[in-house]
Amino acid sequence: VIHTVGPIYGMNEDNDAALLADCYTNSLHLAIENNLRTIAFPSISTGAFGYPKHEAAKVASNAIQDFLSKTEAIDEIHLVFFSESDARMFVKHQVFNC
Question: Cβ-count burial of 4 within 10 angstroms (0-12 exposed, 13-18 middle, 19+ buried)?
Fold first, then answer.
């Protein structure tokens, strides 16, 4: 298990997106350092930390895509969502970038 703590939305307004992206990127780096080729992520910070789900979906998608564009060391990334509507929001961002 690789544990990451996401940002509390609004505490670092100028930095929220970068802090959230770092959660994904740092976890992916740790996976590689530990010879893991598969990783699963929840929707980080969208629960008790209040990060808006649509914004978090954009940040997560961009961070993961950027990371994967630079390495082939990860074979699978699983995204685990609390609800079907959360999953649809992420897919909407992936397909329509909105």
Answer: middle
CA distance from start to end of the chain: 31
* Coil, strand or helix at 79: strand
Q: Which of 16, 69, 73, 4 is nearest to 43 (CA)?
A: 4
**45 CB neighbour count, 10 Å cutoff:** 25
> 39 — phi, psi (to 5°)?
-145, 150
What residues contact residue 30 under an 8 Å CB cut-off, 6+ apart? 2
All domains of the chain, ordered by start, with CATH? 16-96 (3.40.220.10)
pLDDT tens string for the chain (98 positions)?
999 999 999 998 899 999 999 999 999 999 999 999 999 999 999 999 999 999 999 999 999 999 999 999 999 999 999 899 888 888 887 766 65
